[in-house]
Design brief:
The protein has 287 residues and is an alpha/beta fold. It folds into 2 domains: 3-62; 65-286, DHBP synthase (Alpha-Beta Complex), CATH 3.90.870. 30% of the residues lie in helices and 18% in strands. It has a 12-stranded mixed β-sheet, with helices on both faces. Helix 1 packs across helix 2 and helix 3 crosses helix 6 (191-200). It is globular and about 70 Å long. The protein starts with a helix and ends with a helix. It catalyses: L-threonine + hydrogencarbonate + ATP = L-threonylcarbamoyladenylate + diphosphate + H2O. Its main location: membrane. Interacts with RSC1A1.
């Protein structure tokens, strides 16, 4: 039995005795009793149609609000403003990226950053990456002067996290990666999260949407037990890139790179780095 039928059965339809003096429009008439029966049938049909519309609305509503587990919305342009407002008010949201699902908050908010660590059960000494909307935004949060021209524009947007020195002029919240003078930066190839970062006017602290030490999430069902901790969970469907996450590459040393974590598009990333004449940092260089 579908929801339309259920609603129709729940709504009482009162038995009406139609007078031969009441027409379809409810005015005095000398029409036959048959007119009253026709009117009743028409009203029943109209009621069924109205119930179907209500049911359709409720079906959509059920897909948005899930009681007791958090608020789930589609990751579409129509809901970007809701995400931006949540970020600006210091809340944590769950969003799709170009690799896996992540938890995001304002990277310049002490309380929001603390909240992400609490949700994941993560040690405060474990670093978080940040997400910005566009490549030129990176210089607000990290040092890029030493990098070859066009390197970042070639790597990003894409499934790569570039690790850079924060520098004294970085406006990031000091509680983000305390004791570490570098930060991982992402510009995902995903319009939804980039529009959120752009609209928030800040960087987003970004980490995988899972408990610390658990597998990454490629669908919102993978972290359903954590929905209740988010202002919104934005559903972008099942993500196709697998659970590897982004490739993390350290670019803090001029002229060199170091792969910290091989992930999505590793070979493509290596090709770009070498095309820009960067050399891989070996173990002797790092000691």
């Amino acid at each position: 039995m579908n929801i339309s039928t259920k609603i129709t059965e729940r709504l009482p339809v009162r038995e009406v005795l139609f007078s031969p003096f009441v027409s379809q429009r409810g005015v005095l008439s000398t029409r036959s009793p048959h007119d009253g029966v026709v009117c009743l049938n028409r009203q029943r049909r109209n009621l069924a149609g109205a119930c179907a519309k209500i049911a359709s609305s409720l079906d959509s509503f059920d897909g948005i609000l899930r009681k007791g587990t958090g608020v789930v919305l589609p990751a579409t342009k129509e809901y970007t403003l809701a995400a931006i407002q949540s970020i600006r008010s210091g809340k944590v949201i769950a969003v799709p990226t170009d690799t896996i699902y992540g938890f995001a908050c304002d990277a310049c908010s002490r309380e929001a950053v603390k909240r992400i660590y609490e949700i994941k059960g993560r040690k405060l000494t474990s670093p978080l990456a940040i997400c910005v909307a566009d490549v030129p935004d990176i210089m607000r949060f990290a040092i890029t002067d030493h990098l070859p021209q066009t390197l970042l524009e070639t790597l990003l947007p894409g499934p790569v996290t570039v690790v850079l020195s924060r520098g004294d002029s970085s406006i990031l919240e000091k509680s983000l990666n305390p004791g570490v003078d570098s930060v991982g930066v992402r510009v995902p190839d995903n319009d939804f999260i980039r529009n959120i970062a752009r609209g928030s006017g800040s960087a987003l602290a970004l980490t995988s949407a899972n408990l610390s030490g658990h597998p990454s999430s490629v669908s919102i069902q993978d972290f359903e037990n954590l929905w209740e901790h988010c202002a919104y969970v934005f559903d972008g469907g099942k993500l196709p890139m697998g659970r590897a996450g982004s490739t993390i590459v350290d670019l803090t040393c001029p002229g060199k790179y170091k792969i910290i974590r091989p992930g999505s598009a590793r070979e493509h990333t290596l090709a770009i780095l070498e095309r820009h004449s960067l050399q891989e940092e070996d173990s002797a260089d790092s000691t």
